């Protein structure tokens, strides 16, 4: 199954992501080439996952595992099979949080295997705008249990215009991904989340103006 996933990602997903987004990347060299590592990005579109998978080298790509909502991606058997085996998602049972279920267990197991975990800490897709929603602290809990794991922030600029939440037909427009310096666990969850949010906001401030943007978005 691994070979099928690699073929799909390299020969279909990557060209499609580049066609739809342009996949302009700033500081690609800061992306991890091996795990365990966590890559954290803002989330405005289903295109985000496709775009992120297109950024990694073929050697690293097979270790990249997007964390995804189990209630959304595993609800349909066919979509669930594709999500697990081809996209390679790590399912998160977000609806069972607070019910005594360790919803982060699959993510911890992925890190223990040496995978590169892709997390969108806003928890769900935001509006088509570029505002950052409040971050959920699951990433801090993961890195607290594996403090040697680097957390690399990425700001995705413009994907919400390519395929906004609620839309079904993507519109090719140039996007940009900016990669920041790794963040290390310092022992305090609140301080870690504040540092992560500040890093994402700094990358957002650095992002180039959107092409074809409405005047109100500039």
From TrEMBL:
GO terms (BP aspect): phosphatidic acid biosynthetic process
Residue stretches making up the Phospholipid/glycerol acyltransferase domain: 37-159
Alphabetical keyword list: Acyltransferase, Signal, Transferase
SUPFAM superfamilies recorded: Glycerol-3-phosphate (1)-acyltransferase
Domain of life, source organism: Bacteria
Pathway per the UniProt entry: Lipid metabolism
Entries under InterPro entries matching the protein: Plipid/glycerol_acylTrfase
Signal peptide positions on this chain: 1-19
Organism expressing this protein natively: Phenylobacterium montanum
Molecular function in Gene Ontology: 1-acylglycerol-3-phosphate O-acyltransferase activity
Xref: SMART domains: PlsC
Protein name as it appears in the record: 1-acyl-sn-glycerol-3-phosphate acyltransferase
């Amino acid at each position: 199954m691994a070979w099928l996933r690699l073929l799909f990602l390299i020969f279909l997903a990557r060209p499609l992501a580049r066609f739809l987004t342009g996949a302009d990347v700033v500081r690609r060299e800061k992306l991890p080439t091996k795990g365990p590592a966590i890559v954290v990005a803002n989330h405005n579109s289903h295109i985000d996952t496709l775009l992120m998978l297109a950024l990694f080298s073929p050697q690293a790509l097979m270790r990249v595992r997007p964390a995804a909502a189990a209630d959304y991606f595993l609800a349909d058997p066919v979509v669930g099979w594709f999500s697990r085996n081809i996209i390679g998602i790590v399912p998160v049972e977000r609806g069972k949080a607070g019910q005594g279920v360790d919803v982060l267990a699959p993510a911890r197991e992925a890190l223990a295997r040496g995978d590169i975990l892709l997390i969108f800490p806003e928890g769900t897709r935001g509006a088509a705008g570029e505002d950052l929603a409040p971050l959920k602290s699951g990433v801090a809990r993961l890195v607290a249990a594996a403090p040697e794991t680097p957390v690399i922030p990425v700001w995705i600029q413009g994907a919400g215009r390519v395929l906004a939440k609620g839309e079904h037909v993507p519109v090719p427009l140039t996007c940009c991904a900016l990669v920041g310096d790794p963040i290390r666990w310092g022992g305090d969850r609140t301080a870690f989340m504040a540092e992560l949010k500040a890093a994402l906001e700094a990358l957002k401030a650095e992002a180039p103006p959107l092409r074809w943007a409405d005047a109100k978005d500039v």
